[in-house]
Amino acid sequence: KAKSRxxxxxxxxxxxxxxxxxxxxxxxxxLRRAIKRNEFFLVYQPIFNVSTGRISGxxxxxxxQQADGSVLLPAGFVPLAEETGLILKIGEWALRTAxxxxxxxxxxxxxxxxxxVNISPxxxxxxxxxxxxxxxxxxxxxxxxxxxxxVTEGVLLDSSDEAEETITQIRKMGIQVAMDDFGTGYSSxxxxxxxxxxxxxxxxxxxxxxxxxxxxxxxxxxxxxxxHSVNAKVTAEGVETALQLKxxxxxxxxxxxxxxxxxxxxxxxxxxxxxxxxxxTAYPLAMPAPVA
Length: 292
Ligand code: C2E
Ligand code: MG
Ligand code: MG
Ligand code: MG
Hints:
This is Diguanylate cyclase (GGDEF)-like protein/PAS domain S-box-containing protein. This protein is about 50% helix and about 20% strand.
């Protein structure tokens, strides 16, 4: 009896594996087709300076518009693209596209905006990354310091000497490096000690808990202090309420990003948003009227 149950569970397991392999293959060819057909697009989420209330930057977030019109979020395809290596092509496309649009957005906003681009650990391991970055900055209407690469701790996991070298090279080019989702990894503190970075992004999970959990409120404050003590700026992600923003402002957080302030938008919609100065500067906190 136990034996047959055992055999059954083995059979189930290999079926699962087969299904997974098939869907991976199907996904891989769907992704290849998507690249050929230009089915990816970027949305941009505004990021605001907490003390002035003005927009300071944008984060580029990838989307996949499938043939049937449905739009897929990165969680639905980025992990698979990382597994198959296709993230290299997709990520390079995202970098080029974001850099090609930051000039337009900056003109619409009336100030040079920072453009944050998410870089997968898989891309980070490629020696070609540095050239791709240089090419993207040089061939577009932007200064190097306007580009900020968001990396997660995953980037630093495998060969940290090389990762350290890559980060140093990127920063020497005048490009900024941000650590994304700070606080969710295994040794955020260890990485902070080891890698020079320009910005920390406090993970949304901490921001979400600020109102209800004394611990989270204390933790965001600690992370902000920690960031500042290593000369990094701090951005809070996932700000969804006025109260969270108020706390973050009191705690000295530099920038904030979240649905409460602005949702990610397509390029055309963003230009319109930026051109409407009142909306661009309409800050939920009581702030002095910004100079236009
Ligand atoms: P992330 O870099 O931490 O990006 C922030 C995510 O939080 C985005 O989800 C954004 O839409 C969402 N978000 C922003 N404000 C709020 C808020 O107030 N509430 C809530 N609930 N969510 C908020 P999205 O666009 O689904 O992206 C998820 C992740 O996918 C990103 O997390 C990033 O790690 C990855 N990703 C996005 N674009 C790219 C890309 O071009 N390349 C790579 N490698 N990864 C990307
Ligand atoms: Mg990010
Ligand atoms: Mg993030
Ligand atoms: Mg996050």
